Amino acid sequence: MQIASMDHLVLTVKSIKKTVHFYRDVLGMKMIRFKKGNTERYGLKYGQMKFNLHETDNEFEPKAKLPTPGSEDFCLISKTPIDDVIKELNDKNIPIEDGPMINPGAMGKIKSIYLRDPDDNLVEIANYLK
Protein backbone atom coordinates (compact mmCIF):
# COMPACT_ATOMS: atom_id res chain seq x y z
CA MET A 1 0.00 0.00 0.00
CA GLN A 2 1.19 3.50 -0.76
CA ILE A 3 -0.71 6.49 0.69
CA ALA A 4 -0.39 9.55 -1.57
CA SER A 5 -1.89 12.47 0.35
CA MET A 6 -4.59 13.62 2.76
CA ASP A 7 -8.03 14.71 1.53
CA HIS A 8 -9.60 16.14 4.70
CA LEU A 9 -9.39 16.27 8.47
CA VAL A 10 -12.37 16.52 10.83
CA LEU A 11 -12.25 19.25 13.46
CA THR A 12 -14.62 18.81 16.39
CA VAL A 13 -15.54 22.32 17.49
CA LYS A 14 -17.65 24.04 20.13
CA SER A 15 -19.12 26.52 17.64
CA ILE A 16 -19.20 26.17 13.87
CA LYS A 17 -19.93 29.92 13.61
CA LYS A 18 -16.81 30.93 15.60
CA THR A 19 -14.65 28.37 13.80
CA VAL A 20 -15.80 29.53 10.36
CA HIS A 21 -15.16 33.16 11.34
CA PHE A 22 -11.58 32.37 12.42
CA TYR A 23 -10.54 30.17 9.50
CA ARG A 24 -12.42 32.15 6.82
CA ASP A 25 -12.07 35.75 8.00
CA VAL A 26 -8.68 35.52 9.72
CA LEU A 27 -6.83 32.79 7.77
CA GLY A 28 -8.58 33.20 4.40
CA MET A 29 -10.05 29.72 3.92
CA LYS A 30 -13.25 29.21 1.94
CA MET A 31 -16.34 28.01 3.82
CA ILE A 32 -18.24 25.27 2.01
CA ARG A 33 -21.60 23.63 2.68
CA PHE A 34 -22.40 20.13 1.55
CA LYS A 35 -25.03 17.49 2.24
CA LYS A 36 -24.55 13.97 3.45
CA GLY A 37 -27.94 12.30 3.39
CA ASN A 38 -30.42 14.84 4.74
CA THR A 39 -27.86 16.64 6.88
CA GLU A 40 -26.21 19.92 5.91
CA ARG A 41 -22.56 19.98 6.85
CA TYR A 42 -19.83 22.62 6.88
CA GLY A 43 -16.23 22.59 5.85
CA LEU A 44 -13.28 24.90 5.26
CA LYS A 45 -11.39 24.49 1.99
CA TYR A 46 -7.81 25.56 1.37
CA GLY A 47 -5.37 24.44 -1.30
CA GLN A 48 -6.15 20.81 -2.12
CA MET A 49 -7.48 19.96 1.33
CA LYS A 50 -10.37 20.77 3.64
CA PHE A 51 -11.43 20.61 7.25
CA ASN A 52 -14.86 19.07 7.84
CA LEU A 53 -16.51 20.56 10.92
CA HIS A 54 -18.37 18.55 13.56
CA GLU A 55 -19.98 20.50 16.39
CA THR A 56 -19.61 19.02 19.89
CA ASP A 57 -22.49 16.72 20.87
CA ASN A 58 -23.77 16.88 17.29
CA GLU A 59 -21.08 14.84 15.51
CA PHE A 60 -21.76 12.73 12.44
CA GLU A 61 -21.16 8.98 12.21
CA PRO A 62 -18.68 7.56 11.79
CA LYS A 63 -16.64 9.73 14.13
CA ALA A 64 -13.47 9.64 16.19
CA LYS A 65 -13.66 7.62 19.40
CA LEU A 66 -12.98 10.68 21.59
CA PRO A 67 -13.93 13.77 19.54
CA THR A 68 -12.69 16.70 21.60
CA PRO A 69 -12.44 20.41 20.75
CA GLY A 70 -8.94 21.77 21.32
CA SER A 71 -7.10 18.47 20.88
CA GLU A 72 -5.58 19.21 17.46
CA ASP A 73 -2.05 20.38 16.65
CA PHE A 74 -1.35 20.87 12.94
CA CYS A 75 0.77 22.85 10.50
CA LEU A 76 -0.59 24.91 7.61
CA ILE A 77 1.75 25.98 4.81
CA SER A 78 1.13 29.56 3.68
CA LYS A 79 1.80 31.04 0.24
CA THR A 80 2.15 34.40 2.03
CA PRO A 81 5.64 35.11 3.48
CA ILE A 82 5.59 34.44 7.23
CA ASP A 83 6.63 38.02 8.08
CA ASP A 84 3.55 39.26 6.20
CA VAL A 85 1.41 36.66 8.01
CA ILE A 86 2.69 38.02 11.33
CA LYS A 87 1.81 41.59 10.31
CA GLU A 88 -1.67 40.57 9.17
CA LEU A 89 -2.34 38.64 12.40
CA ASN A 90 -1.12 41.61 14.45
CA ASP A 91 -3.42 43.92 12.45
CA LYS A 92 -6.34 41.57 13.25
CA ASN A 93 -5.37 41.41 16.96
CA ILE A 94 -4.70 37.67 16.81
CA PRO A 95 -2.04 36.75 19.39
CA ILE A 96 0.97 34.74 18.25
CA GLU A 97 1.84 32.17 20.88
CA ASP A 98 5.35 31.32 19.69
CA GLY A 99 7.79 31.96 16.88
CA PRO A 100 8.95 32.67 14.37
CA MET A 101 11.26 29.68 14.53
CA ILE A 102 12.83 27.12 12.22
CA ASN A 103 11.34 23.60 12.36
CA PRO A 104 11.65 20.38 10.37
CA GLY A 105 8.70 20.08 7.95
CA ALA A 106 7.60 17.06 5.94
CA MET A 107 9.54 18.26 2.86
CA GLY A 108 12.32 20.35 4.38
CA LYS A 109 12.92 23.13 6.85
CA ILE A 110 10.10 25.56 7.60
CA LYS A 111 9.86 28.95 9.30
CA SER A 112 6.87 28.77 11.66
CA ILE A 113 4.66 30.69 14.03
CA TYR A 114 2.05 29.26 16.40
CA LEU A 115 -1.37 30.54 17.38
CA ARG A 116 -4.64 29.20 18.82
CA ASP A 117 -8.01 28.88 17.13
CA PRO A 118 -11.31 29.47 19.01
CA ASP A 119 -11.18 25.92 20.45
CA ASP A 120 -7.53 26.28 21.54
CA ASN A 121 -6.23 23.95 18.84
CA LEU A 122 -2.56 24.70 18.22
CA VAL A 123 -2.26 26.08 14.68
CA GLU A 124 1.21 26.31 13.17
CA ILE A 125 1.55 28.50 10.08
CA ALA A 126 4.75 28.12 8.08
CA ASN A 127 6.73 28.72 4.90
CA TYR A 128 9.24 26.27 3.45
CA LEU A 129 12.76 27.67 3.41
CA LYS A 130 14.59 27.64 0.10
TrEMBL record:
Q: Which domain of life is it from?
A: Bacteria
Protein name in the entry = Virulence protein
Tell me the organism.
Philodulcilactobacillus myokoensis
All copies of domain VOC, residue ranges: 5-128
In terms of SUPFAM superfamilies, this protein maps to: Glyoxalase/Bleomycin resistance protein/Dihydroxybiphenyl dioxygenase (SSF54593)
Q: What is the lineage of its organism?
A: Bacteria, Bacillati, Bacillota, Bacilli, Lactobacillales
